[in-house]
């Protein structure tokens, strides 16, 4: 049994722009929280967040997607949001993150789902999509990639990795704010901090940078290479929707377009005025891009 913490519910009361009732599913003895909005019989958009955010990041997009007639499922990764938070960093592995989200995918029996993945939401989501391709008719990659460790990660990422391990105050809200182009209010910064009453709750957030494959011998490198084998044969619609001001993933959209057949002929978008967390900076615009993409590729 994995030792974990659960953020008190009152930490999530009255968060600005986040009126969504909680839903939960148990996966491997841990409680996974997810937002579930829109008609249950409608086409599903599965929105996966990254580091160190949570489903709050999708709050501007959910109403736009629901208004277009879609069901939106936006889980909190284990260690984030209202999901349980294992206290030991070694309990977090790349494979476990994939398996935890696989538990949600299969537990909710999501089918005919458009995957939307940003940051780690793509690192996890692209693994899910390639391992359960029959459940995903299309993919939207937003400021993300699927590393195998065969390319040098770059000094910016290595500096972020060092910071995540060494800083005495891993200020989640401040990190999200620093990854945005727009100015965040104190209330929004506090909402990103809400899942983490103190540092004991941040093991997953601190661990994530260490799980990105940065060398060819990384444990996640072989399964990610296998996923790339599927992606290089992926003919179903695949859209890149990156922002113009993200130093973390800049250029990764072109690499995806070069490698994945399903990207050909798609209306790839560069969203102006967005940083790494483009859902925060330009969420409504990204949602409209997704709505149009689904409409153009449906049927």
Fold and architecture overview:
By secondary structure, the protein is α/β, with parallel strands linked by helices. The chain has one domain: Rossmann fold. It is built from ten helices and ten strands. It has an eight-stranded mixed beta sheet, with helices on both faces. Strands 1-6 form a two-stranded antiparallel ribbon. Strand 9 (238-243), helix 9 (252-259) and strand 10 (269-271) form a beta-alpha-beta unit. It is globular and about 45 Å long.
How many strands, what sense, and barrel or not for the largest sheet?
8 strands, mixed
Overall form: globular
Which residues form runs of ≥5 with pLDDT under 50? Answer: none
How large, in whole angstroms, is the Cα Rg? Answer: 18 Å
Secondary-structure element pattern, one letter each: EEEEHEEHEHEHHHHHEHEH
Summarize the helices and strands and which ones pair or pack:
Layout: E1 4-5, E2 23-27, E3 30-37, E4 44-48, H1 62-67, E5 71-75, E6 85-86, H2 94-107, E7 113-118, H3 120-131, E8 138-142, H4 155-166, H5 172-178, H6 186-193, H7 203-211, H8 221-231, E9 238-243, H9 252-259, E10 269-271, H10 278-297
Parallel strand pairs: 4-5, 4-7, 7-8, 8-9, 9-10
Antiparallel strand pairs: 1-6, 2-3, 3-5
